[in-house]
Amino acid sequence: MKILALDIATTTGYSSSSGESGTFNCSFKKGESGSIRLLRFRNKVTELLDLIKPDIVAYERSAGRNTHSIKTQSEMIGVLTLMLEDRNIHYASYSPSEVKKFFTGKGNASKEYMIKTAKKKYPEIEIIDDNHSDALAILELAQSDLL
Fold first, then answer.
1. Model's pTM, two decimal places?
2. Which one-letter DSSP state was computed for residue 51?
């Protein structure tokens, strides 16, 4: 069973059970509509779905206090779930604290600690940033939870 894991944000982290991992940026430039972010996200996720052909997509749910970030993530999750429903791909979501607790043993682990843990667990992978490390953690949790 193939799993694609996503840490959804303006810079989205991804990791798959078939070995692909990294990040992609969905920012919009000055003068562009905010919806451009959603189009960029949709286009990149389409590429990943076509490449990986996952049976399940796992992602981290929105959380935090920054209402702008939560709004952006919620919009992106809406785009993702519509895409997955259209393709009949199953999906699972996890809270940030679930992901952190599973990966590090601490439900309140910092971004830095998540990166440090990812580097230790995956020395063969160049960890790009916290989005990348979170995607690796989500994948590991999904594999444990769903397989």
1. 0.95
2. H
